[in-house]
């Protein structure tokens, strides 16, 4: 009965979404305030209904109601409670429900917190959100209904895929979706602005908080997914350039570009058309990602769905939304007033360069991801474009970005003094080189290029600090006054510095791991000692153990360095009972920011076992950097200027006299 | 510089960057795209030793030899019955089994017979077979359907 209630709520939400998509637009055309007022109310109702449907599905999973096909296929009575809940989105139908829930959550937030928007714009934004919600509800109801019942109900479920039974997976999809579905708001704002045919700096001010929030969540989501793949899949890799990873990475790259171009639009009333286009492209890439992951066109660790009707359905949605939005753009962009001019050496110039590099990099990832599919469709030839392609093309494209990034925040708007900025960054360059050399020698060599890579990472970190240092005026004014000025800086200044610093930290982690990681594959017997990454691992033997829904054989290692024991670690092979599926649970021991990663292989006939050990120096920097970036995003979001709903005065002024904004 | 020259310089710089990126992408493609073959294709495909390919098929029953430290040898086969010997050093995926689908990435040795794999991917879970392998086996009429998920 409860399940039918959820099903019912989902169907009604579809109907209400359709209503929200059509009636308020008619209201806008007829200038009928009553009809336009339907949009926020309807949006909130849709969110309520979808939340009910989602709660019902969660309830069915939590109580192991195997009469629901989705629960039967993806759960088991012995699965621990937390994975019963995360199992809701550990499958195709449930993850689409999560997608819809988050989409409608964002729509509801727009409805609730945007009373300061011009009413026509707000109505149109909500209507566009309504189109997306209606399309995806229709998709769920027609092709991916999670509420289908089984009769008679099976006694036991088929179990959740064991690699998904992990805390990382419980958190990863919600974060990821908060990110890439969050960009739908930017898309809706862009489409609404195009329909209205009028955009100004205030538009960027409204859109930027949404882009910032979505971007910060997406950053966390991608980092979480990467860490999950690292420790759960047992291969010791943290990024595989897997199409599913690329699917979330492309919106991130485009979203990063969007954040920066919206800044130019907000401050200088320039790059308007480009910003609108980027808003459309960013969410288009999110939709493309959804298509790639959910249609089953890919083979990868995450692709659970394989049903052509779904693929075609999403493809049609994709063409409709992306094609529609881009046609609208092509049709209306010419009527938009172009923005102001600026010198190449200026903050705007730097941000344009940032956009150029990021969009080209996005394009290279897109090509590498789609090319194999295109080739197979056209010629039937099966090829694979692997990590070497992306490392080479994307990696080299990032080089100019790494070099110019610290200059950006130091340049003034309109016309800047490059020599002055270089002077201020001179110390940062020297410090970066010195630290990189020191780290290189501490790691006892490695490829010489690593020095440059590390220096690039530290250069960005020190550059971000130099920015704050310069803004506070250390050395120019009295120290206590400089500290006062530092704490008086707007939050957005700290946000920028933190996000850039985090990026530098990630770069340091990536370079250090690529250059200095060591891998040892060897066979050992109980009592044997393995040398790996400067540590000695004594294999103490195997032990059988039993978990709630698996059995495992665990190997114990005592780890010592220079004769002193520094820790111990369990590494195991599990067999999940319900699916008879083996998994490898790596043993990971953390030393500061570095990790020792122990993975078990097959037993050998003479009683030994194959062990694979990686020493991953400063690997935690990769994810730590991403967390710092996201924190930077949230700090910037908490800036008064951007606080959702706060800048009412500014918004009104912007709406009345857009010309004034540029002078600010 | 006049305003017009400045603008030209900016646009020229942008175009140059994009051109450089296009060349880079093309070059990277040339370096790292690898083709997929099943054993039956190899006779006519003329794969040069040292060219990186992906070899897919089934692990031939009884062909897996372990116990040379961490090196494993096995043969990949398909319905044509062609056997391709593969050697791999490292840890095999959890789901690597005889008679199951597998994709090995690597190169043929100088004699063109022995395939040295640096990566071995196996069926990811009980419902999933490497897609390239499944497609080819379907073509060869050798697909033992695992897609049906009827209750």
From TrEMBL, chain A:
Residues in Cytochrome c assembly protein domain copies: 89-295
Gene Ontology biological process terms, A to Z: cytochrome complex assembly
Entry's Gene Ontology cellular component terms: plasma membrane
Keywords noted in UniProt: Cell inner membrane, Cell membrane, Cytochrome c-type biogenesis, Membrane, Transmembrane, Transmembrane helix
Subcellular location: Cell inner membrane
Superkingdom, natural source: Bacteria
GO molecular function annotations of the record: heme binding; heme transmembrane transporter activity
Main subcellular location of this protein, as a coarse class: membrane
Residues passing through the membrane, by range: 6-28, 35-57, 96-117, 124-142, 175-195, 207-229, 249-266, 273-292, 312-331, 352-374, 394-413, 425-442, 448-472, 493-517, 613-635
Residues annotated as domain Cytochrome c-type biogenesis protein CcmF C-terminal: 315-640
One matching Pfam family: CcmF_C
Membrane topology (UniProt): Multi-pass membrane protein
Function: Required for the biogenesis of c-type cytochromes. Possible subunit of a heme lyase.
Family listed: Belongs to the CcmF/CycK/Ccl1/NrfE/CcsA family.
Entry protein name: Cytochrome c-type biogenesis protein CcmF
From TrEMBL, chain B:
This protein's UniProt keywords: Cell membrane, Cytochrome c-type biogenesis, Heme, Iron, Membrane, Metal-binding, Signal-anchor, Transmembrane, Transmembrane helix
Membrane topology: Single-pass type II membrane protein
Cellular component terms per the entry's GO annotation: plasma membrane
Cytoplasmic domain ranges by topology: 1-7
Pfam families: CcmE (PF03100)
Positions with a binding annotation for heme: 124, 128
Residues annotated as transmembrane: 7-29
GO molecular function: heme binding; metal ion binding
Principal place of residence: membrane
Domain of life, source organism: Bacteria
Sequence ranges on the Extracellular membrane side: 29-151
InterPro entries in UniProt: CcmE, CcmE-like_sf, NA-bd_OB-fold
Protein name per the record: Cytochrome c-type biogenesis protein CcmE
Biological source species: Gellertiella hungarica
